[in-house]
Design a protein that fits this description.
With 611 residues, the chain is an alpha/beta fold. The protein contains 20 helices and 25 strands.
């Protein structure tokens, strides 16, 4: 959570900082601030205006600082952890002397002790945040050794937690001190400027080279005599995204753009995975095929939508590869004492590749000897660097807090993994693998056909606008789709909504069904179709408004007054990739109809880098 952006050199303008913050808004937006290194010192502005903090910061910039020449500038958009969202708690934070400024993403776990020690030494704190201890600690260490680099390194060594930090020193305004520990921080450069940010989209314009700040190391970045100097020189990053992909284009919001981009996200993810000889290839695999053949158990960990994608994949993995698959919420897995061995493959599914709980789950799995793999949308993300193997989804940047295209891309990538393992372990004949690959390659076009129905789905949703309680039910792969439908709706409309296995209804949840409830049933034709319809009968008999996601409308749906979302018919194990589309559209339509912002739901941030 929280977004950092900074610029040293020619391109350092307050406007560019605002633009960078806008692109990081998905990381939090309850308050924002910036520090500008002008020829008369630091100028600091902090704003806390709920979801419009960055817009207000932009107004301030336009009104006051337009023509000021800067040596450097950095900004921050916040998702509050310690201290309420307020101007006082917004970053940047300054030390007592006003010489150092700090922005920070993450949590300083030992901030209370450090704060007490520093207060005892006479430091005065202006905020309730954990972040402020960093800047006072730098000030304190600098007072003792008079060397900024040493002071920053020593301060960082004392901090416990996950964090990305940038420090500015008034006496050398053309330099940034940058560090990270289990939180993202990337550097970009062009001929005459240096950029630093929490994520690549905030760096895109004009950047020609990308670098990742290594874990637990201090990188100093300066622009001297128009030349960018990085010390030590970090590893470069290959970045394929371009600025147009993080622009809302002609759409009203990113979520609708990203829903539309789903066929492309999926086809790009599937593209080039099969060579001319029919062999499947994965991206970065530091596990040999021989080792993979010995895998006897797969554990999938993830959070939210990524967890649901993993749940979908479990059915294909068990069916095609014949290995037991466990699936668990990362935050629970990491505090268990799971039984893992070198023949266990732990797969972390994470769009951002930065979600702290999933990252720790993977690192603990690795430490206990298991093989690890991550499915991530961000090249070079922390998890991608840490895991033994990486399978990238090539969905392009996803800006809306509510995941859409990355869900479909994650399922696509995991299906590829299932087929790869089935081929390797010979649990399927090569011809069967080939047939399934061709079926999978047809899915992007089917997703496109579902998307061509968006107006129909919106018309259907009009009948649901007044309802305030939704239940989503499904069986087999329809169950994770039900969970995902409920998550989308609660995330962006704040409407109570739950997902259940359809067969579980009568064990409790059915008590909540009445004529004020909507029940959305995932009922595409499959081996369990009749059983789902039987569950639909049970809720219809209790007065619920019924909505059916189907690849063939049930014969009596019109007579009964049910609403139907029609989707294309594809292989049952792949069907979540089309079944989810009307549910995303439904949530989006209800959100917009109720005057809400689907891209920036309250209380949420896209990348959760805290526990
Ligand atoms: C999805 O709409 C949510 N924004 C959220 O559940 C998300 O999927 C979860 O936080 C996991 O994020 P990750 O994929 O980046 O790890």
């Amino acid at each position: 959570m929280c977004g950092i952006v900074g610029i040293v050199g020619d391109k350092a303008t307050a406007k560019a900082i605002v633009e960078g913050l806008r692109r990081l808004e998905y990381r939090g937006y309850d308050s924002a601030g910036m520090v500008l290194a002008t020829n008369v010192g630091f100028e600091v502005k902090r704003i806390a205006q709920d979801t419009s903090s960055i817009a207000a910061l932009s107004d301030w910039v336009n009104a006051t600082t337009n023509s000021v020449k800067l040596s450097s500038a950095m900004g921050h958009t916040r998702w509050a952890t310690h201290g309420v969202p307020s101007e006082m708690n917004a970053h940047p934070h300054l030390d007592c002397s006003g010489q150092f400024a700090v922005v920070h993403n993450g949590i300083v776990e030992n901030y209370k002790e450090i704060r007490e020690q520093l207060m005892a030494l006479g430091h005065e704190f202006a905020s309730e945040t954990d972040t402020e201890v960093i800047v006072h600690l730098v000030e304190e260490r600098y007072r003792l050794n008079n060397d900024v680099r040493e002071a920053v390194t020593e301060a960082f060594d004392e901090l416990v937690g996950s964090m990305a930090v940038v420090v500015m020193n008034l006496k050398e305004p053309e330099t940034f001190y940058m560090m990270r520990r289990m939180a993202p921080l990337v550097i970009g450069t062009d001929d005459s400027s240096l950029f630093v940010a929490s994520d690549i989209p905030a760096l895109l314009d004009g950047v020609t080279k990308y670098f990742s700040v290594p874990e637990d190391a201090l990188i100093t970045g300066s622009v001297r005599h128009g030349k960018v100097v990085l010390e030590p020189l970090p590893e470069t990053l290959e970045v394929e995204w371009d600025a147009s992909k993080v622009d809302v284009g002609g759409y009203t919001d990113f979520m609708s753009k990203e829903i539309d981009e789903q066929p492309r996200a999926l086809s790009d993810t599937l593209a080039g995975r099969v060579d001319r000889g029919g062999l499947i290839s994965l991206d970065e695999l530091n596990i040999s095929p021989e080792e993979l053949k010995t895998i006897h158990k797969i554990v999938i960990v993830g959070c939210g939508t990524s967890l649901h994608a993993g749940m979908v994949a479990r059915y294909a993995l068990e069916h095609f590869v014949r290995v037991p698959v466990e699936i668990e919420v990362s935050s629970e897995f990491r505090y268990r004492d799971p039984v893992l061995s070198p023949t266990t493959l732990v797969v972390g599914v994470s769009q951002s590749g930065e979600t702290l709980d999933t990252m720790v789950a993977l690192s603990e799995a690795k430490a206990s000897g298991a093989k690890t793999m991550v499915v991530s949308n961000v090249v070079g993300s922390s998890m991608a660097r840490m895991a033994d193997a990486v399978l990238y989804t090539r969905a392009g940047p996803e800006i809306s807090v509510a995941s859409t295209k990355t869900f479909i891309a994650q399922i696509g990538a995991l299906e590829i993994l299932a087929l790869y393992l089935a081929d390797l372990k010979r649990t399927l004949f090569p011809a069967e693998v080939q047939e399934l690959i061709s079926k999978l390659n047809e899915v992007p076009e089917a997703v496109g056909r579902a998307i061509s129905q968006i107006q129909e789905y919106e018309k259907t949703t009009q009948a649901l606008l007044e309802y305030q309680r939704f239940y989503f039910i499904g069986r087999n792969v329809g169950y994770p789709v039900a969970l995902e439908g409920a998550l989308k709706l609660k995330e962006i409309t704040y409407t109570p909504s739950e997902g259940y296995p359809a067969g579980e209804l009568k064990h409790g949840p059915i008590a909540m069904i009445d004529d004020k409830a909507v029940v959305v049933a995932i009922a595409s034709k499959s081996s369990l179709y009749e059983k789902v319809l039987a569950n639909v009968e049970e809720v219809r008999a209790r007065g619920a408004k019924v909505v059916i996601v189907a690849n063939e409308a049930p014969v009596d749906s019109e007579v009964r007054g049910d609403e139907v979302f029609l989707v294309p018919r594809i292989h049952q194990l792949f069907s979540p990739m089309v079944d989810v589309v009307p549910l995303q559209v439904m949530a989006h339509y209800i959100s917009v109809s109720r005057g809400l912002d689907p891209d920036r739901p309250r209380n949420l941030a896209k990348t959760v880098t805290v526990e």
